[in-house]
Every structure is written in C-alpha cells, then in structure tokens.
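Exercise: predict the fold of this chain.
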Amino acid sequence: MIEFITGLIGLSIFFWLIALMLFILWIWMLIDSITREFPNPSDKAVWIALLIISFFFGLGGLSALVYFVAVFLRYKRTLPESKIKITEREKLLRK
C-alpha cells in the first residue's frame, strides 16, 4: 500500500513539473510574440490573442508549443543594424 501511495506522489510531482515547464514556455513565447517584429502586423495580433485565449481554455502549453515550432524555430530574430557592433574585420569580410 505504501508503494502505491509513493508511486502516486511521484507521478503527481512529475505531472506538476511538466505543467510548470509548459507554463514557463507559455510565458516565454508570449513575451517573444509581443517583442518580435512580424512581417505582417496582423500576425502579431493573432499570435498574441491565440496565446492568451488558449491559456484561459487550458491549452496554453499546447499553443506555446505550436508557436515555438511555427514561429520561434522558423524565423530567427534579427537585430537592427544600429544595435549590431561590427568590427572592421567583419566589414571587410562582408564586401
């Protein structure tokens, strides 16, 4: 009986850790969608709305995973030229 109870406790801890990791991923993807510059401004609004609405329906982790695969991994962030420090050697290599 004790083995059964400790197994249930271990299983519940495992699922709580997964839920915590998905929540952290959801926050990370929400921040990324807010700060990312999309080619189409309506894409930004759609992703933010999708992430927020899905959170209230209990699907925040799923929408964060979809955003991670569809946007975060596919499109790399680029910094504006003014924020990139280019050395003289890199300038020569670009020519």
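Check your answer against the key: The chain has a mean pLDDT of 84.
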